[in-house]
Amino acid sequence: MKKNFKSILQVPSKKHSLILGAVIALALTGCTKNFEKYNTNPNALTSAQSNIIAPTAFGPMEQAIYSNYQRAQNLSADCYSGYMQSGIDFGTQNNVTYVMNDGWNSTGFNDEYNLVMAPIHALATTTSVKSKNPEMWGVALLIQVEAMSRVTDRFGPIPYSKVATSLVTAPYDDQQSVYQQFFKQIDTAVTNLKAYIATNPTKSSLGASDYIYGGNYTEWLKFANSLRLRLAMRIVKADAATAQQQAEKAMADPGGLLTVPTDDAAIAQTGGRENDLHQICGDWQNTNLNASLQTFLVGYNDPRLAIYATPATANAGYNLAGQYVGLRLGLTESANGNYKLYAALNTTTTFAFATPQLIMTAAEVWFLKAEAALRGWAGAGTAQTDYEQGITTSMSQWGANIGNYLSDATSTEAAYTDPANSANNSPAISTITIKWDPTATQEQQLERIITQKWLAIFPDGQEAWSDWRRTGYPQLFTTANNLSGGVVNSQTGARRLPYPSSEQTTNTAAYHNAVSLLGGADNAGTRLWWDVNKANF
Q1: How far apart (Å, rounded) are the C-alpha atoms in residues 500 and 497?
Q2: How many CB atoms lie within 10 A of CB 408?
Q3: Which of 48, 309, 401, 480 lies at 20 to 30 Å from 389 by C-alpha?
């Protein structure tokens, strides 16, 4: 930890505008989630200011979805998903060995309240946006759902419906209730956006203040439907009826879904902000390619390999120069500095300094439809068509030559060999091939869908980790070192992140209720509400 201390301590960039002045006190005093206490802040927006300043709040809120990226996502979800693994020595006691680091994980909880929930609350209570600009309010709700769905999918029950209603405590909602609120907020967003588009088909009240779609409300409507579909699929094993209802609603909406790469939702880098993966991999050399991703890409002869990653360097030793060799999850040794020189992310062209950061792609939506079709839901089309379109769309998105990829019925995951430590070696654990097989079992077809979806939605480890927990796919290598003392099962891996320790001391009663709602101990081995330990079908 000491030799990389600076890189772990990301600080907010210039991206946060003066709109956040209303919540500076909140950020400095910790995540109390009781925003009303700060509504008299002299820097808060007034109704008279809202028409000028309110739009400028949106870009910073969008960028805050990935606030403190390394600690909030990379050192947990990106690794648990099989995408990445640090090649430097962070010590033996950390997230990847299932000894949870509170200092890392708390940012993925607190920042979204301070930098997303708080300004949205301010927009609702101290400006006229909610009433005078319902289309902007619709976008604000979608930003909130996108950000907070990531929080609840990391931790479980969260404060949501009653945030800012008390100066004493911030009560938690059970995860099922949180998802119900998400769907209602998407309902509002869709209604508001449709109304604006109908009367203002060529206008935008957000414009360049929106860092995702540049104020294009038609694209936001597609995103709203696609986000509904994603969240619906997430809960299919916990509440199948609601999942089907919400998914079919998304697929039937005339506003449409994300279907082509130009629909992809990505957050632009502005004001000198650097792409997070470029920073932590290119600048700091803090993360590398995970062995699981490497073995699938290599085994499949996947044309996205060189787009996603760069090979080991000549200085890595062990005759690895030019080879794509990743790292097993849970390494506890630095191998004399050689691990950081194994295969890494392509920060030269793909994840460059100013590359926008994806939050959802059209390729993901095609795979969601493929699974919906597999489950027999209305409006999904056919599983094979959606599956193949998902792959094709991903290849187009990344500029890869698809060649005969779709007809490859023989390639499978490759075995893994770590020249620095043979204890990390593993045979391939998946036998799933690429070509669609209509004669395969429903379970095999799901594995094929999720495996290709996983390859397509890289580098969003948060979404990939959620899919893996829900379905068990793709089949990933277990951690090389499980130091949890039995808290986390090596075969099932980390299921969630523990709540920040600050919640135990500053929101004590609510914290204990949250653990009760969680239905298990506040540790990484407890499953979330939607993470049901049962068959996929």
Answers
A1: 9
A2: 15
A3: 309
**Contact by Cβ (8 Å): 511, 503:** yes
Q: Which residues contact 202 (CB under 8 A, 6 or more apart)?
A: none
- The pair of structure tokens assigned to 160 is 């949501």
Can you tell me which residue has the tokens 């044309």?
Answer: 303
What would the pLDDT profile of 331-381 be if each residue is shown by its tens digit? 887 656 788 899 999 999 999 999 999 999 999 999 999 999 999 999 999
Contact (Cβ atoms closer than 8 angstroms) between residue 448 and residue 392 = no
Asked if 344 and 316 count as a contact pair (C-beta separation under 8 A), the reply is no
**C-alpha separations of 86 from 178, 332, 340, 488 in Å:** 33, 10, 7, 20
Centroid of chain to Cα 358: 9
Q: At what angle do helices 461-471 and 217-234 cross, to 10 degrees?
A: 30
* Mean pLDDT taken over the chain: 90
C-alpha–C-alpha distance, residues 216 and 221, integer Å:
9
- 327 DSSP β-pair partners: 290
3-state secondary structure of 497: coil
| CA 216-250-129 angle, 5° bins | 40
Instruction: Please tell me whether the peptide bond between 498 and the residue prior to it is cis, using omega within 30 degrees of 0.
Output: no
- State residue 147's pLDDT score: 98
Nearest Cα neighbor of 468 from 438, 500, 430 is 430
pLDDT band at 8 (very low <50, low <70, confident <90, very high): very low
Contact 405, 303 (CB under 8 A): yes
For helices 461-471 and 134-155, give the axis angle rounded to 10 degrees. Answer: 60
Cβ atoms 265, 356 nearer than 8 A? no
What are 253-262's pLDDT values in tens digits? 999 999 999 9
How big is the CA angle at 281 (ends 28 and 95), to the nearest 5 degrees?
60
